Amino acid sequence: MSTDLVVSDLVAGYGDAQVLHGVSFTVREGEVCAILGPNGAGKTTLLRALSGMVKARGTITLGGAALTGRPPDAVARLGVAHVPEGRGTFMPLTVEENLRLGAYVRRGPSVEEDLERVHQYFPVLKKRLKQAAGSLSGGEQQMLALGRALMLRPRLLLLDEPSLGLAPLVTRELFRIVRTINEEERTTVVVVEQNAHLALGIAQQAHVLETGRIVLSGTAAQIQADEQVAQSYLGYRV
Ligand SMILES: Nc1ncnc2c1ncn2[C@@H]1O[C@H](COP(=O)(O)OP(=O)(O)OP(=O)(O)O)[C@@H](O)[C@H]1O
User: Fold this and answer.
1) Cα-flanking dihedrals φ and ψ of residue 11, to 5°?
2) What CATH number was assigned to the domain covering residues 5-87+154-234?
C-alpha cells in the first residue's frame, strides 16, 4: 500500500491561539519534503500536529490510515517518528538505552537487527553505546536522535531543524545520512530547516509557510529559483 502523506485543511494551535490556518499538502511515498519559513511561521507546530503532539482539526492520513486525533504513541505505532527541535534524547541514559527506547512501541526479536542497522548509519554511536547521551557532542546527539527514530522503522520521518547549533561540516554529514536513509529505506521525510540550501539539496518538493499558511509550493528546484525565497531564505538574489 502507498504510504503517501496527505494533509488536508489542517488547523492547530495552543489553547485559544490558532497557529495553523488550513494547511494542505501531499508527500509521495519515499520523497523528501522541505518546509521553509520565517521564525514563528508554525513549522514546528506543523510537525507536532503530524505526530499527534498538538491537537489538530482537518485530516492527516498516511497510506490511507487516519492520524488525526490519535495520541502520539498511536501515531508512532503507525510508523511516524518525530525528531524534535532540541533532539529529545534522554541525557542521563546511555546511547544504547536511548536507542532501545526508540523501539518501545514495536517490541520484537528484530530490535538487535535494527541496532546493527543504526550502527551502520552511525558508526560513532557504536563506539559510544555505554556512554551517557549527555556526554556526547551536539552532532553525536543529533545522530543519536536520528538513530533512535530509525529504531521505530518509520514510514514517515519528521525532522525539526536538524542543523540547529551544529558546525557546517557536521550538518552536511547529517544531511548526507538522511538522504542515504531516505534512499535505502524508502522512508518518507518531512524536514523543517533554517538552512534552506541543505534542505532543498535533499528534497524533491518544498513548501514555504508564513503565519500558519502555505504561501508557496513547488519542486525543490522551483523553490530554489524563486527570487523571493532566494532573498529571504537562501541569502542571494536569483
Ligand atoms: N507551547 C506553546 N504554547 C503557546 N504558543 C506556542 C507554543 N509553541 C509555539 N507557540 C507559538 O506558535 C507560533 C508558531 O511557533 P512555531 O514554533 O510552530 O514556529 P516555527 O515556524 O517553528 O518557528 P521557529 O523557526 O522560530 O522555530 C509562535 O507564535 C509561537 O510563539
Assistant:
1) -125, 125
2) 3.40.50.300
